[in-house]
Amino acid sequence: MVNNNRSGYVPKPMETLKNSLEKNIMIDVKGNRMYSGILEGYDIYMNLVLKNATETINNENKGTFSMMLLRGDNIIFVSPPGGE
């Protein structure tokens, strides 16, 4: 996480997810898969619900899904809107 704020404040992961609700995010998961979509919800285990999720496997677009649940234990990283 990049910290451009001179006060030294770095947001916690759950705070970042809260600030990303209803915004487009990108998620990298195990198995060389990436998803992007609108974050609809999350829980303390970092299970994420995406709306209008696009799936990419090995840099090839595999389609769009109206709703998707990603298990937190498969997530490698989450990129919030604007790289926050």
Automatic annotation (TrEMBL):
Superkingdom of the organism of origin: Archaea
Upper lineage: Archaea, Methanobacteriati, Thermoplasmatota, Thermoplasmata, Thermoplasmatales
Gene3D superfamilies cross-referenced by the UniProt entry: 2.30.30.100
A GO cellular component entry from the record: ribonucleoprotein complex
CDD domains attached to this UniProt entry: archaeal_Sm1
Domain Sm residue range list: 12-84
Organism: Ferroplasma acidiphilum
Pfam families, per database record: LSM
Keywords carried by this UniProt record: Ribonucleoprotein
GO molecular function list: RNA binding
Family recorded in the similarity comment: Belongs to the snRNP Sm proteins family.
Protein name: Putative snRNP Sm-like protein
Keyword Ribonucleoprotein tagged: yes
